[in-house]
Design goal:
- The protein contains two helices and no strands.
- α1 packs across α2.
- The protein is extended and about 40 Å long.
- The protein starts with 12 loop residues before the first helix and ends with a helix.
């Protein structure tokens, strides 16, 4: 990641709690957990788009 953009993100409280727990169990920050999950989804979507 060469460039970063800061955003404000509003999440439902239960989703925030779940993401925080997932981040904690993976020993990542909340920000890193969100980035990790978004990148994984992006990669999956790109692979699905390339499949015939």
């Amino acid at each position: 990641m060469n460039e970063e953009t800061k955003i404000t993100l509003r999440l439902p409280a239960d989703l925030h709690q779940w993401l925080t727990a997932q981040a904690r169990s993976a020993r990542r920050s909340l920000n890193s957990e969100i980035v990790y999950r978004l990148e994984a989804e992006r990669d999956t979507a790109a692979a699905d788009a390339e499949s015939p």
